[in-house]
Design goal:
single chain; alpha+beta; Jelly Rolls; Arc Repressor Mutant, subunit A; 6-stranded antiparallel β-sheet; 9 strands; globular
Length: 294
């Protein structure tokens, strides 16, 4: 008999330990903090509840409701923006490796339907009009988490079957009407407007002073927003965005010096230092590692 379903401690490494599918259930009840991150795998995120102002995916910003699903492809930056004195943050996160996702889609292309709807609209959020559908999907993730915690016979097979059941129900419920538009720049809070600006212009020179002038505020206002809401400086966020793009381009085979220029660096030594600090290895080693894994 299964015991109580316990949440796990949030892992900032944000990478899979298996080669196919993983499920995670996190419940933070004391000043939650989640760093800006991206993955090499697919993520399906179900929001339960929490003290969030917004959830930012790429350059898009969303106000979440219980049962909302974020469908996040590999190598897309995402992070919550918490309210003042946030206390509670509960969510399920399903991870699918790229290799496993491709196997699933090859077996049944319909499994990519919901992801395809989001991609066509350039959005990441699904919201079902019927609460019953959201509750059913949450139950599927809860059952998957119970299997993931346990050690019953055929555990891995049970997790994959539960994952398939979840994906079938998700895609059967998805339609054009379930894709939610993100907040538009003109009506978005300042932080989301600046984030969207960074995502569009990471390959150009970006300074705190120029960005502040663009949005008719002081540099200290912009800096305060980033440190207060995201826990890192304006320039650190810009660097993270550039380093994410550089990893994508290097993995795609773009020459490293061309990556340097396209990601906003005029001096290769500065790019080299930033990449090595962020990724933990030099660009050439990262490329070689990708080739060995491929």
């Amino acid at each position: 008999m299964r015991g109580i379903l316990r949440p796990e401690v949030f892992d900032p490494k944000q990478e899979m330990s298996s080669r196919q599918v993983e499920i995670h259930y996190n419940l933070d009840e004391d000043s939650p903090t989640v760093d800006i991150h991206s993955h090499s795998h697919y993520e399906i995120y179900l929001f339960c509840e929490g003290d969030l102002e917004r959830y930012v995916v790429g350059a898009k910003s969303y106000t979440l409701q219980r049962g909302d699903l974020l469908l996040i492809p590999p190598m897309v930056m995402h992070h919550p923006v918490f309210q003042e004195e946030a206390r509670r943050y509960e969510r399920y996160v399903l991870w699918l490796s790229q290799e496993y996702w491709e196997q699933l889609i090859e077996g049944d292309p319909d499994l990519a339907g919901a992801m395809g709807l989001c991609r066509q609209r350039g959005e990441y959020l699904l919201r079902f009009p019927s609460p019953a559908v959201s509750r059913m999907l949450e139950r599927e993730l809860k059952n998957m988490w119970a299997e993931f915690q346990g050690s019953d016979l055929c555990r891995d097979t049970a997790i994959r079957i539960s994952c398939l059941n979840f994906l079938v129900q998700l895609n059967r419920g998805a339609s054009e009407e379930t894709v939610v538009d993100s907040l538009r720049d003109s009506g978005s809070p300042l932080l989301e407007q600046v984030i969207a600006y960074i995502h569009r212009h990471y390959g150009q020179p970006i300074t705190l002073q120029d960005t502040a002038r663009r949005f008719f505020v002081s540099p200290s206002t912009v800096e305060h927003l980033f440190t207060q809401k995201l826990g890192l400086s304006f320039y650190r966020y810009v660097t993270k965005r550039r380093m994410l793009e550089s990893r994508i381009q290097i993995a795609a085979g773009v020459p490293i010096k061309e990556v340097c220029r396209s990601c906003g660096y005029t001096d290769y030594s500065n790019f080299y230092k930033a990449f090595t600090k962020e990724v933990g290895m030099p660009p050439s080693q990262y490329r070689a590692l990708g080739r060995r894994q491929g």
